[in-house]
């Protein structure tokens, strides 16, 4: 597979051309090159997929070594790519969904003065994500890992004149860096333990080198998980993701669906061989995952900004993926990641289409009945909403169900219960969003109403493609009862499995669980219909009755404020105090004091340097007398 | 092995010779001085390139060696040469030398002739420090460097320039004098041990100094170097010197001068006093970690860009020290690479801040905002440099920083973990500055008229950015040249460490009369750590 370097070269070319030669290729050129290179990269990924598919199941691992990147003593790291089922699936998602988002952006960003800068960053984002998923060692993966952080910083803060955008970009980068601290220390520990950072070597040696449940295995797994928590926006580091909507909407789609946040899930799946050795770490992963899923869903219930609702739904869905990892179902996590990439990209692009048509309005309380004006957006958005709510036969149904089933089958009943309840909330808030935007009575102000329009074709076509994927994509992973999970089987050689994951629940249980979760989702949708369409006065009354709870949710549990008061401000005020009182006064005071001491001593004895001969003669005389006295009397 | 035909001497003394020629020219020639200085420094850079390309990779010996008897009565010789440690600092100096001269073309308007003379003299003395293989010669260069630097700050500096120049001069001189005492002690000890008076550095490496001597000498040398680095708590001269110094002075100060401190640790403290180094290791590592974290927090709240970058230097050099005192291959190579990286990225930061200063005559962060819209090209270079400085993987800073940390992790896990937080803090203080200077709305109307990068400024910045990428993605040409020298050094330290653990264990063994196998275990653990 010597052609695989093309998949990196193509977006890299895009970055170089759009970044440095945009004046030569012109705006038209950028519109072709930006999406074009990603489209071509997608073709390369397809080729790689079929080549991998053609290999026997246990031989589906190809490594392409380019050169030694860092060599220092026994520490060597290669510049090398790894193509296996897991990385190929990720490549397909990144380039495929990424391509659609690029195409969509041509329409969405059409009038932006920063058009070429936008596509440069977008190409760089794709490149970084591809490095992340195709690296064959931790350190090279870390290049991509941090580079997606950089790209999110640049793109979230794309409209840098807006203070809130600049702040959100900075927040994203810094919070990610906090997670990266764990990743870095984890890598050091891996190197000390295994003497290498190469994936294949580490995972091969892991079962022999690490005791099951031993402290080293647990520590490595937890440290890497800290990195994943930062990148994939889990509690307590999720705070950057909702703010990330400050960027242009297609960027949100890219961050939330194809790139960036999926990195943490990918990393856990990639390191599954380490995680299965650390049951405690897996328990932590499952707990954090399911807690995040529930926590973010509750916030999503009451938000009024279309993108903010979607942002919290991403946090929540990522929680599902970590839950899957935590119960040892890494394949299910990747499956859900893939389905989520389809429907979340669709949701964000649909939201972008709505915002575009509404002239920049994002408040769902000022929308309503838009389905008449935007038929394509409406239908595609509906499909995505059904998919995320987990309605048969849309994509999310299969993937979410597999996660729920895995949790149940592996005996994590508590996790299962919370996850099912979250599924109910998800269905509710997604259809609350859907009904408020597209159905009911119009709350758009008169002036605006005349300008509402469907988006141009360059934007709606990607929606259509994603809608098809969201509708039928799930069939790549239809569960056991229909004759086997294709994607699960394809991924299996690249993933490790816990003993507990062997399903000891039968087909009957699985069918029963399916019916149950389907019913739960239906109830959620029905409730949303009743409250927001049939009797729209109810939500206001409930908010009134439970005012404290409502305010708590509306203000996102005040977590940002708590972080501000507990970390940000003390750091600033404390540093200022140390600077003024210690650095300037104590340390520098001592330095200057030493100088002043010499000077005052010198000026004290300077008094005796009068320059008068008679004074010196007198001192000589006194001296002589003293010396003589010493010899005569002592 | 490369033997000398005077290449090193040519590189070292060419700037000084240029300075003499410039000194002879009449003041009215005006433009000749900057152009002449640029030509001289450019030729010096060109001549130093063969040192890099012709450097033989397989050996830890000194190369391009020149040796002439100088004052034979005292055993003083003119002895210069480079190895895998000093090579890079020499090339870094000649590289930044060109940029420093070129960046001053418009900034320096008064006493032009003297400025460039001092700059060239400074270059010679710094190069001399890195190539000297004789204590006497080293000390001459070491002290000579202070004079042009103090003048650069004191004459061409800002408002409090005299205070800053005097502080810089006296503070570092204080350290040097203590080192001088140390050198004299070494000198006489060598005579008493071998009957030979010599100041030749190479003669001292085989010397096995008793531990008490080592401790005192280490302390004397380390104090002098720690002031230069500067390590916490000896850092307060640095912000003052940087804020007051002209751009070229800041570039040289951050880029090269501080490295003389860290270089001193590698060249003298570690190989001459290995046992003491091992003993002092926890203290130095603690100071390094404090420097990293303390410097970062102080950088965060500085209202002045130069002050901020100055404190960030304290933080960055903490990484270097952490790597060097990890005493293994990764740590020391990371430390040396990080010296180069810091020279490039912090040098570039000072260049960029200088460019802003030339346009707006202020360095206060609060005076700016929204510059991205006004000067996009400048913003690009500032952002790339920021990323290099905070160690973004793929750029130069990461390779050095990670090697330092991986090295330190093998020696002292706690120190490495604490040091890693420096990466988070670096992102905080740098990005916050970037946000306040470049993002948001343009507040001050003056800023709206700011001119973007000029061709000269572009020509200065482009090579630096290219080097970020080269070192970040292809560090092998650098690391492979260091490797033999570093291995040699690590072997020396390893020996000392093993001996110490063994001694310690025999002592315990004697006391307990039953600890034989444990001593061996310790020995093996020591070897493991040093690899």
Give an account of the 3D structure.
- The complex is a heterodimer of chains A (634) and B (531).
- Chain A has 26 helices and 2 strands.
- The model of chain A has no long low-confidence stretch (mean pLDDT 89).
- Chain A has helices spanning 6-20, 22-54, 85-108, 115-134, 138-156, 163-194, 199-209, 215-231, 240-243, 249-258, 262-270, 272-275, 279-300, 306-326, 330-357, 375-389, 395-409, 413-438, 446-449, 457-472, 486-491, 507-534, 538-545, 547-554, 559-606, 613-633; strands spanning 62-72, 75-83.
- Chain A is mainly alpha-helical.
- Chain B has 531 residues and is mainly alpha-helical.
- Chain B has one domain.
- A two-stranded antiparallel sheet of chain B has the order 1-2.
- Chain B is globular.
Kindly name the structural category of chain B: mainly alpha
**Level of helix content of chain A?**
over 70%
| Average residue-wise pLDDT of chain B | 90
- Tertiary shape of chain A: globular
Principal-axis shape of chain B equals globular
Q: Which stretches of chain A of 5+ consecutive residues score pLDDT under 50? A: none
Q: Helices and strands of chain A: which structural class?
A: mainly alpha
Number of domains of chain B: 1
């Amino acid at each position: 597979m010597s052609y695989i370097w093309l998949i990196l070269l193509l977006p890299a070319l895009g970055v170089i051309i759009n970044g440095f030669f945009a004046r030569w290729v012109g705006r038209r050129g950028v519109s072709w090159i930006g999406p074009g290179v990603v489209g071509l990269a997608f073709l390369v990924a397809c080729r790689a997929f079929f080549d991998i598919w053609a290999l026997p199941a246990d031989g589906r691992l190809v490594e392409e070594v380019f050169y030694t990147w860092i060599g220092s003593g026994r520490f060597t790291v290669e510049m090398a790519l790894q193509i296996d089922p897991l990385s190929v699936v990720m490549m397909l998602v990144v380039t495929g969904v990424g391509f659609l988002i690029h195409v969509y952006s041509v329409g969405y960003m059409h009038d932006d003065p920063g058009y070429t800068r936008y596509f440069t960053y977008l190409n760089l984002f794709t490149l970084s994500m591809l490095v992340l998923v195709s690296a064959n060692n931790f350190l090279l993966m870390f290049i991509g890992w941090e580079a997606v952080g950089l790209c999110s910083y640049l793109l979230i803060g794309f409209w840098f004149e807006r203070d809130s955008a600049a702040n959100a970009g900075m927040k994203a980068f810094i919070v990610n860096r906090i997670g990266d601290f764990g990743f870095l220390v984890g890598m050091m520990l891996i190197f000390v333990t295994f003497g290498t950072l190469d994936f294949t070597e580490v995972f091969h040696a892991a079962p022999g080198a690490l005791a099951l449940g031993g402290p080293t295995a647990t520590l490595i797994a937890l440290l890497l998980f800290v990195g994943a928590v930062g990148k994939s926006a889990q509690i307590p580091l999720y705070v950057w993701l909702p703010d990330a909507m400050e960027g242009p909407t297609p960027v949100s789609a890219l961050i939330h669906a194809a790139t960036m946040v999926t990195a943490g899930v990918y990393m856990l799946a990639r390191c599954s061989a380490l995680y299965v050795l650390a049951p405690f770490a897996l328990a932590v992963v499952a707990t954090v995952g399911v807690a995040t899923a529930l926590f973010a869903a509750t916030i999503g219930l009451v938000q009024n900004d279309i993108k903010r609702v979607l942002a919290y739904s991403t946090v929540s869905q990522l929680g599902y993926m970590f839950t899957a990892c935590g119960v040892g179902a890494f394949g299910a996590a990747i499956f859900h990641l893939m389905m989520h990439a389809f429907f979340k990209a669709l949701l964000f692009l649909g939201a972008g289409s709505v915002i575009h048509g509404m002239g920049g309005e994002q408040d769902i309380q000022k929308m309503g009945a838009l389905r008449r004006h935007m038929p394509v957006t409406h239908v595609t958005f509906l499909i995505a909403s059904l998919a995320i709510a987990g309605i048969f036969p849309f994509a999310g149904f299969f993937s979410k169900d597999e996660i729920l089933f895995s949790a149940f089958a592996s005996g994590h009943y508590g996790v299962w219960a919370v996850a099912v309840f979250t599924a109910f909330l998800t269905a509710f808030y997604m259809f609350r969003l859907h009904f408020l935007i597209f159905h009911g009575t119009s709350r758009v102000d008169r002036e605006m109403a005349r300008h509402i329009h469907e988006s141009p074709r360059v934007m709606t076509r990607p929606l259509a493609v994603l809608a098809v994927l969201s509708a039928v994509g799930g069939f790549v992973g239809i569960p056991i009862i229909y004759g086997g999970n294709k994607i699960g089987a394809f991924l299996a050689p690249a993933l490790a499995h816990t003993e507990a994951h062997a399903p000891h629940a039968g087909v009957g249980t699985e069918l029963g669980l399916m019916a149950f979760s389907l019913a739960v989702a239906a109830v959620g949708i029905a409730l949303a219909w009743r409250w927001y369409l049939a009797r729209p006065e109810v939500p206001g009354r409930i908010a009134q009755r439970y005012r404290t709870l409502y305010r708590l949710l509306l203000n996102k549990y005040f977590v940002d404020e708590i972080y501000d008061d507990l970390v940000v401000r003390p750091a600033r005020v404390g540093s200022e105090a140390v600077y003024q009182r210690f650095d300037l006064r104590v340390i520098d005071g001592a330095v200057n004091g030493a100088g002043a001491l010499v000077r005052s001593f010198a000026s004290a004895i300077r008094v005796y340097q009068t320059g008068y001969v008679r004074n010196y003669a007198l001192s000589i005389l006194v001296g002589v007398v003293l010396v003589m006295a010493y010899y005569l009397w002592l | 092995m490369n033997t000398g035909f005077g290449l090193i001497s040519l590189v070292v003394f060419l700037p000084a010779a240029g300075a003499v020629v410039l000194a002879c020219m009449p003041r009215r020639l005006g433009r000749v001085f900057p152009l002449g200085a640029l030509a001289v420094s450019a030729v010096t850079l060109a001549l130093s390139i063969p040192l890099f390309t012709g450097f033989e990779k397989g050996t830890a010996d000194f190369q391009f060696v020149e040796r002439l008897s100088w004052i034979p009565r005292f055993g003083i010789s003119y002895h210069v040469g480079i190895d895998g440690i000093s090579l890079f600092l020499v090339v870094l100096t000649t590289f930044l030398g060109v940029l420093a001269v070129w960046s001053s073309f418009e900034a320096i308007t008064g006493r032009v002739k003297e400025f460039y003379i001092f700059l060239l003299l400074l270059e010679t003395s710094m190069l001399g420090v890195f190539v000297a293989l004789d204590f006497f010669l080293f000390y001459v260069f070491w002290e000579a460097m202070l004079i042009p630097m103090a003048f650069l700050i004191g004459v061409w500096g800002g408002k409090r320039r005299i205070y800053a120049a005097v502080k810089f001069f006296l503070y570092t001189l204080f350290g040097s004098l203590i080192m001088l005492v140390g050198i004299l002690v070494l000198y006489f000890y060598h005579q008493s041990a071998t009957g030979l008076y010599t100041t030749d550095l190479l003669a001292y490496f085989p010397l096995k100094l008793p531990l008490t001597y080592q401790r005192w000498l280490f302390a004397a040398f380390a104090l002098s170097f720690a002031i230069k680095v500067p390590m916490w708590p000896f850092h307060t001269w640095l912000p003052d010197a940087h804020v007051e110094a002209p751009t070229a002075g800041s570039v040289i100060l951050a880029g090269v001068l501080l490295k003389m401190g860290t270089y001193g640790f590698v060249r003298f403290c570690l190989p001459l006093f290995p046992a003491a180094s091992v003993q002092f290791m926890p203290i130095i590592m603690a100071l390094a970690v404090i420097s990293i974290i303390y410097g970062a927090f102080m950088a965060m709240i500085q209202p002045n860009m130069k002050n901020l970058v100055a404190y960030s230097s304290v933080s960055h050099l903490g990484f270097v020290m952490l790597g060097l005192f990890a005493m293994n291959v990764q740590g020391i190579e990371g430390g040396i690479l990080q010296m180069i990286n810091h020279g490039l990225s912090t040098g570039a930061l000072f260049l960029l801040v200088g460019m802003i200063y030339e346009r707006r005559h202020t360095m206060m962060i609060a005076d700016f905002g929204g510059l991205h819209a006004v000067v996009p090209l400048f913003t690009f270079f500032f952002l790339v440099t920021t990323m290099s400085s905070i160690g973004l993987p793929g750029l130069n800073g990461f390779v050095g920083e990670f090697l330092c940390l991986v090295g330190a992790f093998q020696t002292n896990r706690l120190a490495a973990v604490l040091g890693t937080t420096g990466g988070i803090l670096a992102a905080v203080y740098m990005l916050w500055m970037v946000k306040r200077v470049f993002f948001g709305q343009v507040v001050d109307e003056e800023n709206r008229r700011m001119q973007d990068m000029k061709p000269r400024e572009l020509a200065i910045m482009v090579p630096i950015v290219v080097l970020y990428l080269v070192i970040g993605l292809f560090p092998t040409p650098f690391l492979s040249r260091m490797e033999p020298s570093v291995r040699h050094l690590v072997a020396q330290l390893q020996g000392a460490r093993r001996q110490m653990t063994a001694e310690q264990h025999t002592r315990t063994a004697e006391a307990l009369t039953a600890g034989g196998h444990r001593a061996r275990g310790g020995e093996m653990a020591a070897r493991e750590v040093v690899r």
